[in-house]
Design a protein that fits this description.
The complex is a heterodimer of chains A (about 425) and B (about 120). Chain A is α/β, with parallel strands linked by helices. Chain A has twelve helices and 25 strands. Chain A has two domains: about 5-65 and about 105-140 and about 280-355, FAD/NAD(P)-binding domain; about 140-280, FAD/NAD(P)-binding domain, CATH 3.50.50.60. A five-stranded parallel β-sheet of chain A has the order 5-2-1-9-21. A four-stranded parallel β-sheet of chain A has the order 13-12-11-17, covered by helices on one side. The N and C termini of chain A lie close together (about 10 Å). The longest helix of chain B has 23 residues, at about 1-25. The two termini of chain B are about 20 Å apart. The chains are: A alpha/beta (about 425), B mainly alpha (about 120).
Amino acid sequence: MKRREFINTLGAAWLGATVWPLSAGAARNLASARVVVVGAGFGGATVAKYLRMWSDYHLPVTLLEPNAQFVSCPTSNLVLGGSMPLSAITLPYEALASTHGVTLRRDTVQAVDLQKKQVRTATGPIPYDYLVMATGISFDYTKVPMAQTDAARSRFPHAWKAGEQTVNLARQLQHMRKGGVFAITVPELPYRCPPGPYERACQVAWYLKQHNPTGKVLVLDANPGITSKRPLFERNWAEHYAGLIDYQPGSVLTDIDTKTGTVKTVFGTWKTDVLNVIPPQTAGQLALDTGLANSEGRWCDVDFVTYESRNVPDVHLLGDSVDSGLPKSAHIANSQAKVCASGIIARLADRQPDPLPVFANTCYSYVDDNEAMHVANVYRFDPAKKEMVSAEGGGLSDRPSQQEAVDARAWAKNIWHDMLG
Amino acid sequence: MSKDKIMPEKKIGLWLRLCVLAGMMGGSYQVLAQSVQSAQPDLHVRVLAASCAACHGTNGVSVSTTPSLAGMPAQDFLTRMTRFRASQKTGDVMTQHAKGLTADEIRKLASYFAALPPPG
């Protein structure tokens, strides 16, 4: 363990001791419980680390993740713009084990047996007392089934889970014919990262401006308008990308000709050279298969005090799978993870969780390689509505700036370290 | 400031241990537990403070250019947050966050971060 990590670990233990001194009985309860976390994204990695830290390292936590390394969705649009390599947003998981004592298993969960309280994985069953599902999103190709095959996903990548798909889309942009059309289809809300498609349009346009100035970005948005940071994106596009970005609201995707890349929407037919299909989304398939979806069948209801499923006791859900009015952002998943960790530890220590959780969300979007802008809000639990609601005072940047790009990079470094370091 | 924060919690730690002892001895555990419950240290603020970590680092220790909050004198924190809260710069990220918090939350965050070990 590095000196700084050691000091931070000491600080964490000190915090546990002073904020909430654990009794010997609570420590025993924590040490004998088994928590399994499925998925090591912004929600899952954070909850694993904080369950360890806030239990004074008594609570055993197993984290299951199929990928060898973490690849960050936030900042991944810069890979398309060409100002950030994928390697810069690819980070190791090892410190969760070496610094925080999380049992890290590279494994795929096939099913959850709610009766036996076991997760079934490729390498065998793992029992749990508390299960945290942080399985992110799955894609719903019901309306465009022709785009669901492996070949179609490779030809028309979503790049909405960062990694190989991001590199694929960047390569297609780099090889697009001069004067070609790069189309982005945006699903109806709710979907992961509301400003993400518009940030992507900026990054692609910025790339085209330098390398293929007669090319175009076509944004086919199923929503009636830009869903996040709207006045900022509209002004930025008018000032910097006029004639480069063609924005078409209300454009629900209805058909794709997989041979030609021609797409149909409710309003028209569009010929494309590169087609980035961001499909409609649901909670992670494992959460749906486990019966955690609500009556709508797409997202999962939770108690916002502990993030325990409203359907199944002792199963908690985090992040993008959760049905809420909250944006499906990295910072929200990270904050929910802390409410959840605090709630699970409180329960094991026979204490009450905080009945009125409050947390913040800050989300940056880059408009080129050098300037960014943000949306920021505080959210607090409303016990009457049983929802997290926006507090007063939140809002947007006045305009994109270089300082905010510095802030955005600083945000990324700290949130990555907060979940993985 | 940090002493003010720590001392009551040490007492609560003692109370908790007494409660466990009383429970083991078959004493009036429930009554003791309730009295401790009312004085329970503030999980609300710990979770809220942890939400600041996305920009300001785990336990208030930043690993980037954002300022660390750990070990910041409480008065400094209060002064800065009060200025943010009163600011007319509605597009400023900290003004937006400060306006979403209650005065009590800001005071408790000030004590919480002041009591954290500063960056090493």
